[in-house]
């Protein structure tokens, strides 16, 4: 496929490499608001041409697909423009800043018969795929609770709009909770029904943005999930514990793209390490998207998945602001 990259971002560097490694993919243009940044990105990543006007890129390069990795407030308008131009769209999370915009993206993709996917890359993890299988097989009996600790020490290289630009969708909830909610929907195969959240301000973020949050999510089958996201947690391994009536599955270091996951099953027979090899999550995510664009299956996380994760994140922010539990309704029903 011919690819347009919308956003000269850090994550686009990783995704560009993943795309070129697949074979048959051509990076025909990159859009950046800055001519200098766009040109430098194109030269470094093997993109044919850079543009400071998205319409010109779409008209001149005629990409089959675009990867949208601009800051969050730009995702919706840029994706809608690309869909209108006939492109398949792989969009970064959160899909949009407003639920209406995200729903419109899904509708536009359907009406133009294009694939819209959300880059919720944690679904691509072999550890998570194994975990999902074990849960479905009943390896821990009936799941009644999940604990997620996705607390990291945000690297200096990622400081910037995440920490000080509310209008660009900064803050730990839109950045990390969206991923964790999507992952729990994927693992448990059940929808969240309500969320309570308390946000925290440790002084890293500005402009009222939260740099820590704890939430309790109730799922439709009664499962309770406790989730912690943080930008200020030093030396903390990520953890994902699934508690069932017959045992427990623990996944350590699986929530960051560079982590080496360790999966353990604990039950009446003791603790058993489940072998899981680390894999390149972004490579697997874009590969699934490419296959979906060829008409063979669905992307790992669809546009609808992105809308649902966004709905929960927005409800979490509302819950934190109001101090009240938010009831969730299916935004794409
Ligand atoms: P970056 O901060 O690297 O880039 C975001 C935008 O900022 C770029 O599109 C670019 O604008 C502009 N920019 C880049 N470098 C500079 C600079 N030196 N000075 C000024 N502006 C600059 O963002 P990320 O790569 O961290 O995130 C981009 C998107 O991807 C976000 O939506 C984020 O949520 C998502 N993301 C998803 C991940 C995942 O695992 N699924 C992981 C990381 C991010 P322009 O295009 O106009 O040049």
Describe this structure in words.
The protein is of the alpha/beta class. It folds into two domains: about 1-120 and about 285-300, Rossmann fold, CATH 3.40.50; about 120-280 and about 310-325, Dihydrodipicolinate Reductase, domain 2 (2-Layer Sandwich), CATH 3.30.360.10. Helices cover about 35% and strands about 25% of the residues. Strand 11 and strand 12 form a beta hairpin. The longest helix has 20 residues, at about 305-320. The model has no long low-confidence stretch (mean pLDDT about 95). It binds NADPH dihydro-nicotinamide-adenine-dinucleotide phosphate. NADPH dihydro-nicotinamide-adenine-dinucleotide phosphate binds near residues 7, 10, 72 and 92. NADPH dihydro-nicotinamide-adenine-dinucleotide phosphate binds near residues 7, 32 and 69.
Q: What is the CATH domain class of the largest domain? A: Alpha Beta
Question: In this structure, how is the largest beta sheet organized?
Answer: 9 strands, mixed
CATH topology tier name of the largest domain:
Dihydrodipicolinate Reductase, domain 2
Count of distinct structural domains: 2
Low-confidence stretches: none
* Structural class by sheet pairing and helices: alpha/beta
| Strand elements, count | 15
Question: What compounds are bound to the protein?
Answer: NADPH dihydro-nicotinamide-adenine-dinucleotide phosphate
Number of helices: 10
Cα-based radius of gyration, to the nearest Å: 20 Å
CATH superfamily heading of the largest domain? Dihydrodipicolinate Reductase, domain 2
Major sheet strand order: 14-13-12-11-7-10-9-8-15
Identify the overall geometry: globular
Distance between the termini: 32 Å
Q: What series of H and E elements makes up the topology?
A: EHEHEHEHEHEHEHHEEEEEEEHHE
Please identify, by name, the CATH architecture of the largest domain: 2-Layer Sandwich
């Amino acid at each position: 496929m011919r690819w347009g990259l919308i956003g000269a971002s850090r994550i686009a560097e990783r995704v560009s490499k993943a795309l070129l490694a697949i074979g048959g993919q051509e990076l025909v243009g990159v859009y950046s608001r800055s001519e200098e940044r766009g040109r430098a990105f194109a030269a470094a990543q093997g993109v044919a041409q850079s543009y400071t006007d998205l319409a010109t890129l779409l008209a001149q390069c005629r990409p089959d697909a675009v990867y949208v990795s601009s800051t969050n407030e730009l995702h919706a308008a840029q994706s809608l423009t690309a869909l209108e131009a006939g492109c398949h769209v792989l969009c970064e999370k959160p899909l949009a800043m407003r639920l209406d915009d995200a729903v419109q993206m899904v509708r536009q993709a359907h009406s133009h018969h294009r694939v819209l996917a959300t880059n919720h890359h944690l679904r691509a993890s072999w550890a998570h795929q194994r975990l999902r299988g074990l849960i479905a097989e009943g390896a821990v009996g009936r799941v009644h609770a999940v604990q997620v600790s996705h607390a990291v020490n945000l690297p200096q290289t990622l400081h910037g709009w995440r920490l000080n630009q509310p209008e660009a969708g900064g803050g730990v909830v839109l950045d990390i909770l969206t991923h964790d909610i999507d992952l729990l929907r994927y693992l448990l195969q059940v929808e969240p029904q309500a969320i309570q959240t308390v946000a925290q301000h440790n002084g890293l973020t500005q402009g009222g943005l939260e740099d820590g949050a704890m939430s309790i999510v109730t799922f439709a089958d009664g499962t309770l999930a406790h989730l912690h996201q943080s930008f200020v947690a030093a030396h903390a391994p990520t953890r994902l514990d699934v508690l069932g009536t017959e045992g427990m599955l623990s996944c350590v270091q699986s929530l960051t793209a560079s982590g080496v996951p360790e999966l353990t099953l604990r039950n009446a027979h003791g603790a058993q390490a489940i072998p899981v090899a680390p894999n390149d999550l972004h490579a697997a995510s874009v590969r699934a998207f490419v296959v979906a664009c060829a008409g063979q299956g669905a992307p790992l996380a669809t546009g609808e998945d992105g809308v649902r994760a966004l709905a929960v994140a927005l409800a979490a922010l509302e819950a934190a602001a109001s101090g009240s539990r938010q009831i969730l309704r299916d935004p794409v029903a």
